[in-house]
Amino acid sequence: MTQIENITLIKKANVYFDGRVTSRAIILKDGTKKTLGIMLPGEYEFSTEVKEEMEIIAGKLEYKLEQEDWKMIEGSGVFYVPGKQSFKLKVYSVTDYCCSYLNE
């Protein structure tokens, strides 16, 4: 999906790691929340509250879920993070992403 229609945009940015990771939240008509953002090169660790779908739209990174090995995404790809867990990222180039919060 390259376009999302009929949304509410939260204008205030989410800023992490001294501005090296930023995103904006959108709310879909059905109440589903997503964030659209950019990550600059660096190493990061995030925690989740609910299950998340991380869609990498463009970029190059490695990700590591708890209890798993590092995996590479170059270009585009998707990975899922269970709720109440942390995950690590090694971002090698400017990376464009969309995070969907899944209430499963």
UniProtKB/TrEMBL annotation:
It catalyses: guanosine + phosphate = alpha-D-ribose 1-phosphate + guanine; inosine + phosphate = alpha-D-ribose 1-phosphate + hypoxanthine; cytidine + phosphate = cytosine + alpha-D-ribose 1-phosphate; xanthosine + phosphate = alpha-D-ribose 1-phosphate + xanthine. The keyword RNA-binding does not apply. InterPro entries: Ppnp, RmlC-like_jellyroll, RmlC_Cupin_sf. Its EC number is 2.4.2.1, 2.4.2.2. It is an enzyme of class 2 (transferase). Pfam families: Ppnp. One of its GO terms (molecular function) is purine-nucleoside phosphorylase activity. GO terms for cellular component: cytosol. Signal peptide: none annotated. Keywords: Glycosyltransferase, Transferase. Belongs to the nucleoside phosphorylase PpnP family. Catalyzes the phosphorolysis of diverse nucleosides, yielding D-ribose 1-phosphate and the respective free bases. Can use uridine, adenosine, guanosine, cytidine, thymidine, inosine and xanthosine as substrates. Also catalyzes the reverse reactions. HAMAP family: Nucleos_phosphorylase_PpnP. PANTHER family: PYRIMIDINE/PURINE NUCLEOSIDE PHOSPHORYLASE, PYRIMIDINE_PURINE NUCLEOSIDE PHOSPHORYLASE. This is Pyrimidine/purine nucleoside phosphorylase. It comes from Halalkalibacter akibai (strain ATCC 43226 / DSM 21942 / CIP 109018 / JCM 9157 / 1139) (Bacillus akibai). The lineage of its organism: Bacteria, Bacillati, Bacillota, Bacilli, Bacillales. The gene is ppnP.
